[in-house]
Task: inverse folding
């Protein structure tokens, strides 16, 4: 079990967000534009760095999902492999 492995869970969150972006054909510049549209200021470079390190907050994760229009988020088993 990976309950206490922060890296494991960070990778899952990153995978979920990348999957949702890919489903919608949204790249990082487009996501940054959409985030600015809901009042969140972040640069493409900052977002790219946070995504590659998996060091973004739960708040930013939810903000990204909201910005790209995710209304429901099924936690598919493939995320956990």
Result:
């Amino acid at each position: 079990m990976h309950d206490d492995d922060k890296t494991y869970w960070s990778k899952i969150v990153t995978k979920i967000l990348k999957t949702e972006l890919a489903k919608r054909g949204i790249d990082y510049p487009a996501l940054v534009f959409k985030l600015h549209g809901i009042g969140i200021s972040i640069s493409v470079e900052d977002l790219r760095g946070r995504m590659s390190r998996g060091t973004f907050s739960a708040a930013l994760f939810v903000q990204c999902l909201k910005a790209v229009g995710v209304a429901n988020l099924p936690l598919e088993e493939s995320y956990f492999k």
Summary: The helical segments are 6-24, 28-37, 44-53, 58-68.
